[in-house]
Amino acid sequence: MKPSSEEEEVVRGVGPWDECFEVAVQLALRAGQIIRKALTEEKHVSTKTSAADLVTETDHRVEDLIVSELQKRFPSHSRFIAEEATASGAKCVLTPSPTWIIDPIDGTCNFVHRFPTVAVSIGFAVHQELEFGVIHHCTEERLYTGRRGQGAFCNGQRLQVSRETDLAKALVLTEIGPKRDPDTLKVFLSNMERLLHAKAHGVRVIGSSTLALCYLASGAADAYYQFGLHCWDLAAATVIIREAGGTVMDTSGGPLDLMSCRVVAAGTREMAVLIAQALQTINYGRDDEK
Ligand code: IPD
Prior knowledge:
Elements: H1 5-12, H2 18-39, E1 45-47, E2 54-56, H3 57-73, E3 79-82, H4 83-87, E4 99-106, H5 108-113, E5 119-126, E6 129-137, E7 142-147, E8 151-154, E9 157-158, E10 171-174, H6 182-197, E11 202-204, H7 209-218, E12 223-227, H8 231-243, E13 247-249, E14 262-266, H9 269-278
D-MYO-inositol-1-phosphate binds next to strand 4.
């Protein structure tokens, strides 16, 4: 009897989302070429939710390229959550259907200033479960990938998180987020202060949530937390961190909610809980309620 196409896939060792993953990798690499070239050119910069929330024509160009190529390759996939489309009013809802979650340039402020810490992030979820993530650190040509149950890699080298459990020995990463009103800044700075009082070795801000999360996945930092990031900053990186052995959770200490605009991630669960306990909440609302 002729094997079904599903059985043939098992025999050849092909998983159900392999083609999607390969296409995501190719698109992230292509997008990286565009961003590298545009980095040194003049840019038209606009603002979105605040004076620190920037967008350029390259963000739009890269997003359009990724979404249109995915639509061509996978015509049955109709769900896209993409940063700039959402900024223009598209709904940001995760349904059980295959869903692509895209940040065309993460670190747009870095990109505008030619600070070379800029990435493209493509995540993919089915039945609200993250299947894979692809993040291209395009200025350093590092490709981070993670696939559910298949490990996490950077340029082919397997990633492994730090096993540190002691906050007094931790290097912690965070990002400022777009709100800059006095009350928000006060809590942001007080959260940093709390971690420094707990004797963390350092708290770093590099200007790209996705790349900070990739550093965590690589074991180059012990923890990450942020209020004000979005599902497109988090989706791909979450798979990469989990596959590198790390924990990604809500700042309340509960399970991760991709739409809640807040996260704690760490190499160990113990470290994530210590960070979560130290933090005061900054309320950014939810991505799926905007
Ligand atoms: C932003 C960056 C920034 C972080 C923001 C993100 P964008 O993404 O990652 O570091 O503080 O919360 O939204 O706007 O550059 O794609």
